[in-house]
Design a protein that fits this description.
Order of helices and strands: EHEHEHEEHEHEEHEH
Strand content: 15-25%
Strand order of the largest sheet: 3-2-1-4-6-7-9
Structural class: alpha/beta
Distance between the termini: 59 Å
Radius of gyration: 20 Å
CATH architecture: 3-Layer(aba) Sandwich
CATH class: Alpha Beta
Helix content: 40-55%
Number of helices: 7
Shape: globular
CATH superfamily: NAD(P)-binding Rossmann-like Domain
Number of domains: 1
Number of strands: 9
Length: 279
């Protein structure tokens, strides 16, 4: 029996993961900004689940949520799932919108990571799962700032993986494709400003023009089972794509990058000092 702390569990992937973790007999600290929104999950497992309020941008609540897991012996698996999308051209975004997005999607998860690491290091065990996006390897018009938060999270995760792996702690990054959640609905924020020149690029992906909500192919319940299987497996990937669209999109993007590297290698390689020259 393992103790999980799952952020952003009031809906979507977080809720599906909380239910699946508890159904498998694990302990779970199930968090949301309003704990009443996860009460139905917790009430079904009164002995193994705990509802805790958590706004990941509030350091005091981060500390309290991690401490609450002591009831079950401490956090063994942290899932940084809380976050939200944001649409707006790079020029359209306001500073306060950008600051809030980074506070939620990047600095909040980092705060939680720093809070759970000391006991994980003492135990020489633990798993940290950071929910990223296929937007990290490939950004679309209107998603530049959202992508930036996830790219930053992946960069920290990559370094963290190399730092704590020798200590017995695993790090996993999830890159989901499009899932049938509230991501493109209630949870999606967008810029207050609208600039007409971007109508045919970023503008096409504003909420009022996006018809994908509710039609996504990804099933959160199936994703939850895949995540638990990966965490519990003997060999977990560092990056785990979720969804057939994720596999296709990321594979195409990586191949495009390789093709560009090969096409420009003859220029890239001219920037070295000549062989035998000390510089």
């Amino acid at each position: 029996m393992t103790t999980w702390l799952i952020t952003g569990a009031s809906s979507g992937l977080g809720a599906a993961l909380a239910r699946a973790v508890l159904a498998r007999g694990h302990h779970a600290v199930v968090t949301a900004r309003n704990p009443d929104h996860v009460r139905d999950i917790v009430d079904a497992y009164p002995d193994t689940a705990l509802a805790v309020p958590l706004d990941v941008t509030d350091h005091a609540q981060v500390v309290s949520a991690v401490a609450a897991a002591d009831r079950f012996g401490g956090v063994e698996v942290l899932v940084n799932n809380a976050g939200h999308g944001y649409r707006g051209a790079v020029e359209e975004a306001a500073r306060d919108e950008i600051d809030e997005l980074f506070a939620t999607n990047f600095f909040g998860p980092v705060d939680l990571i720093q809070e759970v690491l000391p006991p994980m290091r003492r135990r020489r065990s633990g798993t940290i799962v950071n929910v990223s996006s296929i937007g990290a390897p490939r950004s679309n018009p209107g998603s530049g700032y959202y992508t930036a938060t996830k790219t930053a999270l992946e960069g920290v995760s990559d370094a963290l993986n190399r730092e704590v792996g020798p200590l017995g702690i695993r790090v996993m990054v999830l890159e989901p494709g499009a899932f049938r959640t509230d991501f493109s609905g209630r949870s999606l924020a967008q810029s207050r400003a609208v600039i007409d020149d971007y109508a045919d690029t970023a503008g096409k992906r504003r909420k009022e023009n996006d018809t994908t909500h509710g039609t996504q192919q990804g099933d959160p319940d199936r994703a939850a089972e895949a995540i638990i299987d990966a965490v519990e497996g003997d060999r977990a990937p560092f990056r785990l794509l979720l969804g057939s669209d994720a596999v296709r999109i990321v594979r195409d993007e990586l191949q495009s990058r390789i093709d560009e590297i090969d096409a420009w290698a003859h220029v890239s390689e001219t920037t070295d000092y000549p062989a035998g020259e000390n510089g």
